[in-house]
Amino acid sequence: MQEFRQRVLCLSPAELKRLDSPVCKLLSFISHEAPRDVVFVHGAGGNSLLWRRTLQGLGGTAKAYAVDLPGHPSGEITCRTVEDYSEALHEFLGDQSLEKPVLCGHSMGGAIVLTLALSHPDEVGGLVLASTGAKLGVSQEILDGLRDQPLRAIENVITPWSFNSIDLGMGREARTALSVSNLPVFLNDYLACEGFDVRKELPLIAARTLVVCGDKDRLTPPKWSHYLAANIPSSEAVFIKDSGHMIPLEKPEALALVLQAFLGGAPR
What we know:
The chain has 268 residues and is α/β, with parallel strands linked by helices. It has one domain (5-265): Alpha/Beta hydrolase fold, catalytic domain (Rossmann fold), CATH 3.40.50.1820. It is 40% helix and 16% strand. The chain has eleven helices and eight strands. It has helices spanning 13-18, 52-55, 82-95, 108-119, 140-148, 150-162, 168-176, 184-194, 222-231, 247-250, 252-265; strands spanning 5-8, 28-34, 38-41, 62-68, 102-106, 126-130, 209-214, 235-240. The chain has an eight-stranded mixed sheet with strand order 1-2-4-3-5-6-7-8, with helices on both faces. The protein is globular. The two termini are 26 Å apart. 47% of the residues are buried.
C-alpha cells in the first residue's frame, strides 16, 4: 500500500501569535513516495487534493509533498501576489530541510514555482510547469463573476472552462479540490494571476524544466506552453491528449507516467 497522509504542521505559541499579523505560511500538506523529492503546488482557489490521484501513480524512495497555500482551503488571506506565495513556498522548503527539490506547479502554482526559480535559482532541482504560462491574463468575465457572485462564477464559468469533459463524479472530485469554504480567496488568486508576467526572465531559468499542457486547455492554451518551452533553455514540452486545464483530475494516470519518467531522470 502506497503512503498517502495528511499532516498539519505544529506551531509554537510564538508562531501562532505571528499568524495574527499578515504573514504567509503554509500550514498543511499531503505526502507520498516519489522518485526524488518534489513539491506540488495547486492553482488559484485550489488545494492539495488536486494532486491526490496523480500522487498515487508515483513511486520511489524519496518524497512528494502537495502543499496547501496560505488561505487554502480555509483561513486568513495573507498572500496577495504570486511573489508572496512564492516566499511562503520558499519558507516551507526550509522548514522541511529540502535540498534542491523539483517544484511542480499547476496554473497559478506554475507562476509560483517559476517565481521561486528566478528568485532562488540555486535551491531548485527542476521544474514542472503544468497548465500555466509566463503571463497569466484573466478573463474579465471571471473577475466580474468572482466579485459579484463567486460561487456562481466558479460553477458556471470556471469549472466548465477547466475541463475538456466532465461527468458527475469528476465534478464532485473537482469540488473537493477547490477552496469553496473560503470564496474570497478565488478573487484574490485570480487578481494575483492578472499581475503575473515573467516573459522577459524566462531565459534566466537554469533548472531542467518539463512543460505539460492538455491539448484541449481553454484557460491556459497550448500556445502558452509552446512559448514556455521555446524560451526556457533546458526544457521540453508534453501535451496530454483529450485533457483540458485540470490535467491532475482529468488525466491523473497519464500525468503520473510523465512525471515519474521526468523525476526519475532529474539530477539530484
